[in-house]
Amino acid sequence: MAMSVGDKGEDAPMSEINTTPLVDIMLVLLIIFLITVPVVVQTVNLKLPSVVFEPTTTKPENVLLSIRSADTDGDGEPNPESTACEVYWGQTPVDSRQLLERGQAKLEQLLEDIGGPQNITEDNFPEVHIRGDVNTPYQCIGGVIYTMQYAGFQKIGFISEPAPGSGTLGRL
């Protein structure tokens, strides 16, 4: 801001713009934005894991499932536009009925081997490890998850391929 010093009288017209109302309006707008932005941006407080990837321990009793889109165009490759799914238990193709029956049979055999449900621990209960193709529709993977949970499995995990150089083995 400028200060008027000189020969002009007090009655002379002032040629500078009065910026005080402009500053007042800007401060009011700043306060309004500071109050309204936290109300608009609502998030759920989460602590996300900070690992690049965690190596999985594969136990012999775990179930390894592979899921991909069906080969509907006959070229030997999965068709990403296809809504049909191919599910493999290990290397054996299965449909949803067979998947449920095999899952229930696996858990019944486990119960028989360990001597009943009272002997189940987290260490001896099998997990389901799903390997899903990148182009597989979610309905395929979601259906397999639902079927395996219905069969009685409690832990279902996803196997992924980490980006090159992002693994923990490179840091050892």
Low-confidence stretches: none
From N to C, what is the helix and strand string?
HEEEHEHE
Main beta sheet strand tally, sense and closure: 5 strands, mixed
> What is the strand tally?
5
Identify the strand order in the major beta sheet: 3-2-1-4-5
Mean pLDDT: 78
Task: Count every helix, treating DSSP H or I runs of 4 or more residues as helices.
Answer: 3
| Fraction of residues in β-strands | 5-15%
Rg from Cα? 32 Å
| Sheet/helix structural class | alpha/beta
Q: What is the general shape?
A: elongated
Query: Can you give the helix content as a percent range?
Result: 25-40%
Distance between the termini: 63 Å
Account of the protein in words:
The protein has 172 residues and is of the alpha/beta class. Helices cover 31% and strands 13% of the residues. It contains 3 helices and 5 strands, in the order αβββαβαβ. Strands 3-2-1-4-5 form a 5-stranded mixed sheet, with helices on one face. The longest helix has 21 residues, at 20-40. It is elongated and about 105 Å long. The two termini are 63 Å apart.
Keywords, separated by commas or semicolons:
single chain, 172 residues, 5-stranded mixed sheet, elongated, 3 helices, alpha/beta
What's the helix and strand layout?
Layout: H1 20-40, E1 63-69, E2 85-89, E3 92-94, H2 96-114, E4 128-132, H3 138-151, E5 156-158
Helix pairs in contact: 2-3
Question: What is the structure about, briefly put?
Answer:
The protein is of the alpha/beta class and 172 residues long. The protein contains three helices and five strands, in the order αβββαβαβ. The relative contact order is 0.15.
